[in-house]
Design a protein that fits this description.
- About 85% of the residues lie in helices and about 0% in strands.
- It is an all-alpha fold.
- It has one domain.
Length: about 300
């Protein structure tokens, strides 16, 4: 019972810290920045793929991104994504690609602001250093998506060849599909760990960030299921309210939900650290009284 009580205490303290740190406002900033960054990131991804002679892989990488969205959210966005990605792009080293790279990094900068507030730290690095770091994360993310896309394209071909030679392997096709989705989930976990560990100012151990990462993953899965079920049962809910902007608003509200959960995950870690500091302070205070002649 004490363990359950401590868990609820952490959850409640994290929520209060989120309100104190203007977490809801920061979540809207992250959601809007992410929406603005999404298509520039895909343009950059397409340019990279075209530069290396593998333009078709960019569309597969975009499909991997959309795999993690509920169908009701992903399908309208997918139509716009295909429109953006159908144009061949070889302008990787042009000003347009540089601007796409810069605007893509805005989403990373928004995450940095939210994490810094959640962990109660102040950014003391120069703005250009943090911007360069954010651009680096964007480039690394694009590279990872392309490498993973190679696996998605070549994987089915290799598996099909194996099945043709060993027909009994066809029974494990579903397992292979699960592993493919598991690879996408693995990328998300790694991204969460990296951002919590290195994006915010200061230093944190891997063990100290795991509670927030696990809470974020659980709430993301739950939030995606609930949001998708809501749109499935009330498909016209946003269309009647926002008209022609319904698609954009669905994406924005969904991103806002994800961003709020992400910040709450950071606040979970911040709350645990704050409670540990408070406990250590009480122990030091008791020790000081004892040394001064106070006994308990």
């Amino acid at each position: 019972m004490q363990a359950i009580g401590r868990v609820f205490a952490v959850l409640y303290l994290a929520y209060n810290r989120m309100i104190l740190h203007d977490g809801w406002a920061i979540a809207s900033h992250i959601a809007l920045s992410a929406l603005f960054s999404f298509f520039p990131f895909l343009i950059l991804l397409t340019a990279l793929a075209s530069f290396f002679g593998a333009g078709a892989l960019a569309d597969d990488a975009a499909g991997l991104i959309l795999d993690v969205l509920p169908q009701e959210v992903g399908m309208p966005i997918a139509a716009e994504v295909r429109t953006v990605l159908t144009e061949w792009r070889g302008d990787l080293l042009t000003i347009g690609a540089a601007l796409a790279l810069y605007f893509s990094s805005n989403g990373i900068e928004a995450l940095r602001v939210g994490l810094n507030r959640a962990y109660g730290v102040r950014e003391n690095r120069s703005w250009y250093l943090t911007r360069i770091e954010s651009i680096f994360y964007v480039v690394i993310g694009a590279g990872v998506m392309l490498v993973f896309a190679f696996g998605v394209v070549l994987g089915p071909l290799i598996w099909g060849t194996l099945v043709s030679y060993f027909p009994p392997l066809a029974e494990f096709t579903r397992v292979v599909d699960v592993l493919r989705l598991g690879g996408t989930a693995f990328i998300i976990v790694v991204a969460l760990i990296v951002t919590h560990k290195y994006l915010a100012a200061g230093e944190r151990s891997f063990l100290s960030i795991l509670p927030g990462v696990f809470v974020t993953l659980f709430l993301w899965l739950l939030g995606g299921f609930v949001f998708g079920a809501y749109l499935a049962h009330f498909p016209q809910a946003y269309a009647t309210t926002y008209g022609g902007l319904a698609t954009a608003m669905i994406a924005l509200i969904f991103l806002y939900t994800l961003a709020a959960i992400y910040i709450y995950g950071g606040e979970i870690n911040g709350a645990i650290a704050a409670m540990r500091r408070a406990a250590a302070k009480r122990l030091r205070s008791k020790a000081t009284r004892y040394e001064g002649g106070w006994h308990w």
